[in-house]
Amino acid sequence: MLTAYTSDEIRAAEQVLMARLPGGTLMRRAATGLAVACVKALPRVYGSRVVLLIGSGDNGGDALYAGAALARRGARVHAILAGARTHEGGLAELRRVGGRTYDLRGISDPARTEGAKAGTSASGPAKALETDPMLVNLIGGADVIVDGLVGIGGTGALREPYATLARMSAGSPGIVVAVDVPSGVDASTGEVEGEAVRAHLTVTFGAVKAGLLIDPGASHAGTLRQVDIGLGPFLPAPGVVTLTGPDVAERMPRAEPESNKYRRGVVGVVAGSDRFTGAAVLAVGGAVRAGAGLVRFASAAEAVQQVRAKWPEAVTKIITPEEGVREVGRVQAWVLGPGMGTDDDAHALARSVLDSDVPVLVDADGLTLATRDRSLLRRSAPTLITPHAGELGRLLGVPVEEIEERRLHHARLAAAELGVTVLLKGSTTLVAEEGRPVRVNLTGTPWLATGGTGDVLAGIAGAFLAGGLSCYEAASCAAFVHGLAARMAAGGPEGGQAPIAALDVALELPSAIRTLTASR
Ligand SMILES: NC(=O)C1=CN([C@@H]2O[C@H](COP(=O)(O)OP(=O)(O)OC[C@H]3O[C@@H](n4cnc5c(N)ncnc54)[C@H](OP(=O)(O)O)[C@@H]3O)[C@@H](O)[C@H]2O)[C@@H](O)CC1
Ligand SMILES: [K+]
């Protein structure tokens, strides 16, 4: 399991460790790791052009010492001094080995208190920077740009001149290496208030910061490399974690020799309607291919006909809103919602499912119904909701943009406010439940952003719930397996480059599960 921390947690651990070591030891360790990462990223160090963006704190200190190490190996190193102060030891060391500096305070006095919103065009002092020939040449001609503007000490939107430097580095052909965290990304949450550095590589020290795993921060971080500085024993229990393949393999329901279909878990699916049938076919497909012992599907006649045609292994029943799921037979968990509609009949059906005493996964139209009638989610058995940002926004009465901007906050808030487990879909899927670390899933692929993949995910998680996993475990394992199957469908476990359809993800599930469980 990978663990991730907030800035405060890292800082507290660093204090304890620092008190036991000679001064400067941690920065030396960090800078050495950073220099090694830069060497690996460069085709050749000797003669390469390295530009350091230096802020006023220790993040800049790391970059200066690493720059000095690169200069000693023959790189041409230029430090752009952007802060009101500069780390003295680092600067002296860089100068000692022939590194050069360019002090921005000499060319402009930008409004340092103004946050620059992403996308706004530069004006005034920022404009003067953007057209400064020296700066344009340095940044435009760099083989590698080392972002040492701010690290875990950063707060709020990047101020000038940092914001302009972040924007300029995005236009450079050089490799951008972020020191500890891309400047402008909130290291604790992944939130980005204004301009932020877009790194190809982030070299992070001591432990992974949660904001590097969660979008929008995650998409600014590029490849992550962690440098051990000896912090491990001093870190607290993490607030954010990520499951690895072996973690998921260990948790997934197993088919034991004495298993029969009832022992492996019976999942009920209430999805689709006479008008919409595709979502039902995909949700049932997810459940069937993820290894449910038996899938009971209950819906209107047209949806039942389509599901039977595609998945003959499902036991189907045509139901009416009045009778609900009373006569469907015993299940260990329900999946409720995809394509079921949102009218009064759908509401009655949802009520009959949510009245049951087994775990229920609520997705899609089920979430729309719950938005209108929150009492649907008040139940004694566990509930898992699987919204995308828009659905969660409606449930919480918050604009979708705010959900996207503050994913970690809103996933936690929803879990607390609604008393359910929340799987918030997106490029970095989050699973939140009160009293537990938020789980971030990293196996997704941009190709997953296509219609119907959420229905497949609901089916997978439903199968895992029926197999005996808790909402928290079922959601995080399902997100992992779903993302892995999508990657494999798109061309390979590391992510291919072919478009995929939702059904491809369902069909790929056995292969994905096989790659996970082969080593268990
Ligand atoms: N502690 C350790 O043991 C180790 C720490 N290490 C390293 O130290 C880093 C943390 O260093 P840190 O604490 O000096 O903070 P850091 O991130 O460099 O900058 C903070 C300064 O930036 C500014 N600033 C803030 N927000 C801003 C904004 N939005 N826009 C513009 N400016 C902004 C503000 O300064 P001011 O406004 O006064 O100029 C603030 O004081 C850490 O990430 C890691 O790289 C490693 O060496 C390993 C050992
Ligand atoms: K940085």
UniProtKB/TrEMBL annotation:
Catalytic function, reaction form: (6S)-NADHX + ADP = AMP + phosphate + NADH + H(+); (6R)-NADPHX = (6S)-NADPHX; (6S)-NADPHX + ADP = AMP + phosphate + NADPH + H(+); (6R)-NADHX = (6S)-NADHX
- UniProt keyword annotation of Endoplasmic reticulum present: no
Q: Could you say which residues bind AMP here?
A: 425-429, 454
Residues involved in (6S)-NADPHX binding:
58-62, 151-157, 162, 180, 279, 339, 388, 455
Q: Which UniProt keywords apply?
A: ATP-binding, Isomerase, Lyase, Metal-binding, Multifunctional enzyme, NAD, NADP, Nucleotide-binding, Potassium
Q: Would I find NADP among this entry's keywords?
A: yes
| Job description of the protein | Catalyzes the dehydration of the S-form of NAD(P)HX at the expense of ADP, which is converted to AMP. Together with NAD(P)HX epimerase, which catalyzes the epimerization of the S- and R-forms, the enzyme allows the repair of both epimers of NAD(P)HX, a damaged form of NAD(P)H that is a result of enzymatic or heat-dependent hydration. Catalyzes the epimerization of the S- and R-forms of NAD(P)HX, a damaged form of NAD(P)H that is a result of enzymatic or heat-dependent hydration. This is a prerequisite for the S-specific NAD(P)H-hydrate dehydratase to allow the repair of both epimers of NAD(P)HX.
| Name by which UniProt lists this protein | Bifunctional NAD(P)H-hydrate repair enzyme
